[in-house]
Design brief:
By secondary structure, the chain is an alpha+beta fold. Helix content is 29%, strand content 26%. Strands 13, 14, 15, 16, 17, 18, 19, 20, 21 and 22 form a ten-stranded antiparallel sheet that branches. The radius of gyration is 23 Å and the shape is globular.
Length: 399
Amino acid sequence: MKSQKSLRHGGLPVSLPAWAYQSDELVDIEYENLILPSWQFVCHVSEVRNPGDFATLDMKKDSILVMRGKDETLRAFMNVCRHRAAKLLTGTGNCRARITCPYHGWSYDLSGELKGLPAEKTFPGVEKEKLGLKEIELEVLSGMVFARVVPGGPSLRESFGDMVEVIEEYRLDEMVPGGPAWVDKWDCNWKIAVDNNLENYHIPVGHPGLNRMFDSDLTGTINRHGVAYSKSVLKETFSANRAERMYQHLAKDAFRQLGDETRRTWTFFSLAPNIGLDIYPDSFDIFQILPLSGTTCQMRYPIYVRPNASRGEKAMQYLNARINRQVGLEDRELCERVQNGMGSHGYEPGPLSNYEHAVLDFHNRIRAACPVVNDAQAPVSGTLRQRNDALRDGNRSAA
């Protein structure tokens, strides 16, 4: 079978083969090998400030629960009962004393220990101390709460490295939810949405509003852990669009607690494999791309705003949301156009620009975790996992 590694265009690297953006079988393998071992955003500390406060994150096959214990400790668990796997909690809220399963009433204290099960005598020899909720890794960075299902790998702070200093300038831990998280389904493979989020090459054409407002760094940087960084600085020339022009005008005198350069800059980060972090002087958002099927993904988009804002600053937050709502619509259309094109007869991957170096890094991570994508053609249906396992075993032997 021809290897896609050998496919280059005039010496330039090319993107993944078209079949890799359409396969349900591959998505399952990617989820296991890329999503589960990675840091996933759950909530902001302001949402789990008091004992009993909780927040949940639902992914393809799993649900994560973050809860503040009576001892003030923040913990993350798999959000399933240890009895017969019923999902325990949904959304956000507060449990005053116990987490109670809605199926059979098994109950856990706020630290995850099993405390009660109805008809306990019918479970002779049960060892409750061994049936607490499954705890998973949790880390808080600048007020952002992340969890990781499969342990190991670098910490969140280690992953961001020197970029943590840039993030901390914006004082994200002081922010609060701007409303319920926006959740939607896009008709494209999750990697198409990630590819789009990892490059600014498309901004001048794909996002005319951003191009009117900002001088954008089209290249950006990326570190060895797959954290990419770029920034856009407000132009001195005002946009012809009223909302954009108003934002530029208000930004000159707002948020004086931040440095002058920070107040004029929109900063963009991407955390491998599927998290975008967009930071503005007035707010920040998380762009979380979760795989669903070979041709669909879920977009989770919570927004957090700076509290106690002045009237002008609140106007900036409103304008920001309006501007980025348009950007989101543009991104969705672009991504779904790409998905449609992936099925075109005879399509072959084109060359990647130097502006797309973060896309290449992402693709190389896919290739390492799921070497079957190095095949130019999709394996026969039903054999993809077997083929991938064989390639991984072969790579281990060669190493």
